[in-house]
From TrEMBL:
Gene3D superfamilies: Periplasmic binding protein-like II. It comes from [Kitasatospora] papulosa. Signal peptide: none annotated. This is Extracellular solute-binding protein. It comes from the Bacteria. Pfam families: SBP_bac_1 (PF01547).
Amino acid sequence: MSRNNGMDRRQLLKLAGLSAAGLGLTAAGCGSGSGGSGGPVTIRHAWWGADDRAKKVQQCVGLFEKKHPKIKVKTDFQQYPDFWKKFNTQAAGGNPPDVIQNAVTFLRKYEAKNVLLDLAPQAEKGNLDLGGFRSGLEKFAEIDGKLLGVPVGSNSMALVIDEKVYEKAGITPETGWTWDDWYAALRKIKDGQKIAGDAGPYGVMYLYDLILRQNGKAFFTEDGMGFGEAELLPYWTEALERVEAGLYADPGKVEQIKPASATAKGLSAGEFTWDNFSVRYSAEGSSSYGLAPIPSTDGKKTGQYLGSLMLSGTARTKHPAEVATFISFMTHDPEVARIMGYDRGVPATTAQFEAFQPTDAPSKAIAAYETSIADAGVLEPITPHPAGADVIEAAFLRIGADMALGKTSPKDSVKQFFSEAKTALAAN
């Protein structure tokens, strides 16, 4: 299966829910440079990611400072776990960065602790432009009437496949295929090529959320868990059986090759992940890789939604207007899109979306994939995430991995997970 062909730009505009009117930036999008403070100020921006992202963000910051000479931006980046450790320390000490890269799993956690800045007043004052976003994304970080972040890009869950393995097996995943179809594909690949069909999806919280959503539930509610032991036990029991049967990759080998992916290293024919993560596979592996649709229970409802990284201000900032001006620039300026590409997902605004037209195969595939799921009409609102969701996500991944390695039984793993989830929710 190949998803690397060129795309119809009108199709992608349809996905974005865009219009020609959205191509213009308002005065709020340009910002005033000093946000009305009158003098030069310095704000701090922190994010997580690899060195390549850091270089790109630094370029964007340099461009911002040239266009807004009265605002200086001091930068800091870490790997994902280290970022949050440092941020928690800074927030506890009352000295967090002014602007941070953020994700939906952290919104309620830090909103409850009064760490995040409500950006709505800055939008009302004209310092933050909320126009020209792809349909619904400007409301992605609205919590209890507060605007706690602005999206910089979008992504959705997908199945990354080794196209050569799937082609050899004579399998072409198409929109509308079911979990039974997917399972049959795993068996055919295992029997015919002696390769595990999947890396092992049992610890991927966002995938399990889609499975639950397909069946009328969800991983989270606004206040807690949206499912119980009765749902998780058969899922993890079945997962262990598939590990033992070789349908899922050997978890010990998967751990050994990290941070490389199991599919890129030939341990499996596919794995579930965010679509914009797929850019890594060509660099890590020697095959060709594509994005396949998410299977569903009934061949129709996938439970999918657009996720997003975002930029959030912090409540202790002394320069909320400048923070808003910076965020507005990073989400609207066309040159930022040309620098960042799809590093943080498909650009969230019209101006940036139109500014960056991918030429590399992985980015074209991402855009084509998001076009296809939009045309299929499967996108829904994102599931709410309560405070503590980040801890619960980490527990789901860790406990699922331990179970697959044979350290604990599915029954004990399920009980441990819900015990840790209860503690995480109570602590927030």
